[in-house]
Design brief:
Elements (H helix, E strand, L loop, with lengths): L4 H6 L3 E3 L7 E3 L19 H12 L3 E3 L3 E4 L2 H12 L4 H15 L9 E8 L4 E7 L22 H5 L10 H12 L4 H14 L1 E2 L2 H9 L1 H4 L3 H7 L11 E2 L2 H13 L2 H4 L2 H11 L9 H5 L4 E3 L2 E5 L2 E5 L6 H15 L20 H24 L10 H5 L1 H9 L33 E8 L5 E9 L7 E2 L2 E2 L12 E2 L2 E2 L17 E5 L2 E6 L7 H14 L4 H6 L3 E3 L3 E5 L4 H10 L3 E5 L6 E6 L2 E6 L6 E4 L1
Parallel strand pairs: 21-22
Antiparallel strand pairs: 1-2, 3-24, 4-12, 4-25, 5-6, 5-13, 6-9, 7-8, 10-11, 11-18, 12-13, 14-15, 16-17, 18-19, 19-23, 20-21, 23-24
Helix pairs in contact: 3-4, 4-6, 4-7, 7-11, 15-16, 15-18, 15-19
């Protein structure tokens, strides 16, 4: 059942796009990234149902050997079967992601991309893989500008083929399995093939989003025929089959990722892009030349731990690290007296709580200022990564922060760097629709993966039974600002900047927390906040995930709509913050590795669960 859907819909502000007749283009930040829904439909499996009830009660799920936390019970079931049979975290990810592409197509799938952080227990190595989409070779920095040089409207750019980058998820799934998999590849795709052939129940979440996006989904016949059969949006509980997706997975099972990048399926994808209502630039050459890239992890020492995430083109790992590092430096490196960690029941609304929110909110503003200036695909622009995370720079940024008042100015800093730093700030916005899964297997391997098609339902273009991304709109819509180039401008072959922040927290060379979330640029705040709550305040992982959000990015403190929100907003306003009370529908999925075993948490704002044995 939807939570507060009528009031949510009535609160939206609409303008109309100029070049897509009849399409309502929401122009304000009131647009929901994805709708907040209650738990998924009833689950038949007693064990999974118990995990769902644990989430409802606010208790973490506990397990001894392995665990998976993901965004839909059917995906969790697929991954759990693999783990139970002796598969690795990488194996379980393949099964779960294939299922998510079927049952949660608005959020991720084979037509999107993602980032993966993997801890290999045998070698003790932490590896990050970049499966982000790439811009076509024919793309230019003016891709999303009108003839007069002004930026296109957001949905003018999103809908159709122009926004589609080369999908990276199939290659990422294949690459992870080749490195760390043990199970037979075809077996991992079999559950999703069966569900696509036999049908699956449409969830309340998917049905609500189809209804909300009806006008845009109608623009392409294949998309409309799937989500709006006979012109009527699918309803919760309807049984939906997807023979085209089943056939795609069969090809994937026999031919690996190469079938997406060469041959008939690749031609189907490029044809769909080039025949869309707004034709794109994707070519067979672009598809053939896609590669997954291994990147160096971004790690920050934090309170005796190492918080490790994805580096550029993700801004997630760097910005999460800067937020936590700046707060740590402000307190002189010791957070033991922070936010009543000795008594979490006193946290909300206390002076310690407000001091922490003030400090974290100011640290986030400073980090987001750096993010807007410096972070982009490091294969195309120099990124001052060591300088942004240097201890002396953290101290310098901490000097601009405050735990008492909102800072007035959050200009980018000047980290030490051996290249020129003359960059303009990013111009654009992103409304990503994303998913996250966290997995720990019986061998001690741990996986954190966030994947996305960007906006809900991506470009609204379908091929092979799956939706294609609109990730190119994560680039800046301007190439320059006042004559100064923007680091995250469009360029051929470049990967757009992302906020996805899959994270593994390490201690003494082993993982202690696996975490991540969807949520657009608020992903960064959700992840940093949850790490803080778990490591600093001492909350269990389910509580850390479920507590009301309060996140700052660009100056306005977003406060989750709860009964206590008005009082908290008033207190933060007194400290000089602008505030906005709103639904904040994160999709956090986390696993804590404790001396007592595994503890899993799943976001109550979405339909996912954590489950283990």
């Amino acid at each position: 059942m939807l939570r507060s859907l009528p009031s949510l819909l009535l609160s939206l502000t609409f303008t109309f796009a100029g070049s897509l007749p009849g399409i309502a283009q929401q122009a304000t930040d009131a647009i929901p990234l994805e709708m907040t829904t209650d738990l998924a439909a009833p689950i038949d499996d007693p064990a999974l149902r118990a995990a769902q009830e644990a989430k409802r009660s606010g208790a973490p799920v506990r397990a001894e050997h392995w665990m998976i936390a993901a965004a839909h019970p059917m995906a969790v079931a697929a991954g759990a079967d693999v783990l139970r049979a002796g598969g690795t975290a990488a194996d379980a990810m393949v099964a779960a992601q294939a299922m998510l592409g079927l049952v949660e197509p608005q959020s991720s799938g084979l037509g999107g991309g993602g980032f993966l952080v993997y801890f290999d227990a045998e070698s003790g190595m932490l590896t990050t893989l970049d499966g982000r989409e790439t811009a076509p070779a024919e793309a230019t920095p003016r891709l999303f500008q009108k003839d007069d040089g002004t930026p296109m409207g957001f949905f003018d750019a999103v809908i159709g083929g122009l926004s589609v980058g080369v999908p990276g998820t199939p290659a990422l799934m294949d690459a992870a399995h080749q490195r760390w998999g043990r199970s037979a590849w075809p077996d991992l795709l079999a559950p999703a093939i069966t569900a696509a052939d036999q049908g699956f129940p449409v969830s309340a979440r998917l049905a609500a989003m189809i209804g909300f996006d009806r006008d845009r989904l109608m623009l392409h016949p294949a998309t409309a025929g799937y989500f709006l059969p006979g012109g009527t949006p699918l309803a919760a509980g309807d049984t939906l089959t997807n023979p085209a997706y089943a056939e795609t997975l069969r090809q994937f099972a026999t031919g690996g990722a190469q079938v997406f990048y060469e041959g008939p399926l690749a031609e189907t994808i490029t044809a769909a892009v080039n025949q869309a209502i707004q034709p794109g630039l994707l070519t067979p050459w672009d598809m053939r030349n896609y590669t997954v890239k291994e990147r160096d992890p971004v790690c920050l020492p934090f309170q005796g731990y190492e918080v490790c995430g994805m580096g550029p083109p993700s801004s997630g790992g760097v910005t999460v690290a800067q937020i936590l590092g700046t707060a740590q430096a402000y307190r002189g490196g010791d957070l033991s007296g922070s936010a009543i960690s000795s008594d979490p029941q006193l946290a909300f609304g206390s002076k310690a709580h407000l001091d922490d929110l003030t400090l974290l909110g100011n640290a986030a503003r400073l980090a987001f200022a750096d993010r807007g200036r410096y972070l982009a695909d490091s294969d195309f622009v120099p990124v001052p990564l060591p300088g942004l995370l240097a201890p002396d720079y953290m101290k310098d940024r901490a000097g601009a922060a405050s735990a008492d008042r909102a800072i007035e100015d959050a200009a980018p800093g000047t980290p030490e760097f051996d290249h020129a730093l003359n960059w303009a700030d990013h111009v654009g916005r992103a409304l990503p629709s994303t998913t996250h899964m966290s997995i720990v297997d019986q061998y001690g391997n741990a996986l954190s993966m966030t994947s996305s098609v960007e906006n809900a339902f991506g470009s609204r273009v379908m091929a092979g039974g799956f939706l294609l991304n609109n990730q190119l709109t994560d680039f800046s819509f301007r190439s320059h600002s006042d004559g100064v180039p923007i680091a995250n401008r469009v360029e051929p072959g470049k990967r757009p900047r992302s906020s996805m922040a899959p994270t593994i927290v390490m201690k003494d060379g082993a993982p202690v927390l696996v975490i991540g979330s969807p949520g657009g640029s608020r992903i960064i705040g959700y992840v940093a906040e949850t790490i803080w709550r778990h490591l600093v305040e001492g909350h269990d992982i389910q509580t850390a995930i479920a507590l009301p959000h309060a996140v700052n990015r660009f100056g306005t403190y977003d406060i989750e709509a709860t009964p206590e929100a008005e009082a908290l907003a008033a207190q933060l306003t007194e400290r000089g913050f602008k505030t906005s009370i709103r639904d904040l529908n994160s999709g956090l999925h986390g696993i804590a590795l404790t001396p007592q075993g595994l503890e899993g948490g799943a976001d109550p704002r979405r339909e996912g669960i954590a489950y283990g044995e």
